[in-house]
Every structure is written in C-alpha cells, then in structure tokens.
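In this supplementary section we document a worked example of the pipeline. Step one takes a protein sequence of length 243 as its only input; no multiple sequence alignment statistics are reported here. Step two produces a three-dimensional model, which step three serialises into structure tokens for compact storage. The input and output of this example are shown verbatim.
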Amino acid sequence: MRPRVEHVVVVVPARDEEALVGRCLGALQAARQAARAVLPDLTVDLVLVLDRCTDGTRSVALGHLDVRLVDLDEGRVGAARAAGVRDALERSAADLDQTWLAGTDADSVVPEGWILEQVRLADAGADVVVGTVRPDPADLTPTQHAAWRATRVPGRPNGHVHGANLGVRADAYLRAGGFPDRPVHEDVDLVAALVASGARVVATDTCDVLTSGRLAGRAPGGYAGYLRSRFGAIDDPVEAESA
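The serialised model returned by step three reads:
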C-alpha cells in the first residue's frame, strides 16, 4: 500500500501568457484552498516556470501571492516542466513517495476540486492520474464546439494524455526519468515511460480542465494543433478573418 500524499507540487509552464495566466493562477489558488479545507495538513506549492517570456506574464504572476516563479530560457515545454519539478523537489523536505506532482498549463483553468481529487486518487493507489481537458467554447464557433462535444462521452475518459491535466507521484516520476527535454509531447513520452516502469495509471474525467481553444498554439503539434487538424475546417474563425 502506497503512503498517503502529504505534499503537492503544481508546476505550470508559461510562455507569453499575459492574457490568460491570471485566471490560471487564481483557479489554482482556489483549488489549493479547497484541498486544505478538507486536508488541513496537506502542503501545496504552486510553481510557475517563465520560459522565454517577452510579455507581461511575470507582472501578472507577481500579483498572486504564494506562487514561486522560476525563470528559464529554453523555449521547450519539456524543459520548462522538468525545471519546475526539479526546483520544487530541491526545496522540499517531504518524502518522494509522499509527494504528488500535478501539472497544468498557463492557458488553462482547473476546477476547485482538482487538487483534492488527484490526492484522493493517489491515496487510493494511483501512481499517475491522466485527466481530461475541454476547449474554451469562447475560442470556437458553435459548430466547432458541437463537433468537439460529439467526441466526448461523460463518465468514459478517453485516456488521452494532456499536460494541462496530469499528476504523478514523485518517486515514480524520477524512476521513469522525468519529463524529456522536448518542445512537444513531453507529457505523452513521460506517461509512456511510467507505464513501462510498471506505474499504475488511472484515467479520469471527474475534474475536467478548461483550456484555451485557440487554433494557433505556443507548441506546434500540441492541443491547438489537434483542435485545428480535427475541427479547424469547420467554420474556422482564423480562416474567416483572413478571407
């Protein structure tokens, strides 16, 4: 039986997310408060990795208390996630098998129960939690959003890996080699390594994370690329603006 989680680290990579990072951090602070209301002894660190930011992302982040900022100049999301984890573990005195590493993105909004649910699943035996995401309908046309909704069946998570909704126990993370230094699909590669190492993976849609529905993202081939390839031809607002 795995020990109960005593410490949670939430790592968020950011690259020029001035417009969206504020709502991301606000949601994480609410999730931390909600988790500690139920588990008062649980400690939760929020780490924002500023990777080659040239806009006002830092200024917005400084307006949020108890969020640690890590500066990086790599331009690769894999390196950013790994740097955030490394910084947090170096500062933490908690045992690795009692530490949970949760990840989301700076353009995403977690629900209030997100941290608590990841801890609940970890305490029930999960080494890895793979959660679902949903695109912000404000970024899609009604036709695009309806087409996306048709791909989802509530209560039946598809098991797709999203860095915006991912969690892993720290000792399992290190055994699997951590996030690879890649510009894209670092989350998928990590979970593949975790599976190969024998980690227990649990897929869930109980805490869906809202993420940007933009069709031109920071990482080519990431979620924005998926949305554009799958739904971009349906009343594509980008194409309409350029027509």
